[in-house]
Write a structure and sequence with these properties.
The protein is α+β, with helices and mostly antiparallel strands. A hairpin with a 2-residue loop joins strand 5 and strand 6. Helices cover 31% and strands 21% of the residues. The strands form 2 sheets. Strands 1-2-3-4-7 form a 5-stranded antiparallel β-sheet, with helices on one face. The protein has a two-stranded antiparallel ribbon with strand order 5-6.
Length: 182
Amino acid sequence: MRAFAKSDVGKAREMNQDYYYIADPTDAIQVFILADGMGGYNGGEVASKLATTTALSYIQSNFETIPKEKEEILNLVKSAMEYANMVVYEKANTNANLEGMGTTLEVCLIYHNKAYIGHVGDSRIYRIRKEFIRKLTHDHSYVEKLVKDGTITEEEASHHPKKNMLMKALRMYCLCRTRCYH
């Protein structure tokens, strides 16, 4: 497997609030993490780095102690994300300059050719096999909800004025989704 990361500040922001971790191919467990700080709020870059490093540390510290079964690994990913949420929340509450900070968080742990993913926010995880690309996550955004409810079309969603408004993220409301893929 090959992994690459590229980050861009985008068109609307002055500061890049992305943070990621890519496992070294020699690492005992393969973990890949992406966090995108919430633009427009204080400390998005702090939240994304803190969430990434906290989730990674949690997984690395606890992986060896759990049974290597599907549900246990998914629970580890979920617990890592919930712990990262708590750390980001506490950091935001201890510093007035970081009040309201938050981030999306994507975690992918690969073990025995299975990908265990955790997702919260509007960053995405895709699976690429040969020439096929499949989106594995769904955005936790207001506009995605409108599309799902049938209120607007996919075309309308791409131009909607609230297309970047999140419904779930770390620090706001962490209800992460976890799944396993072969």
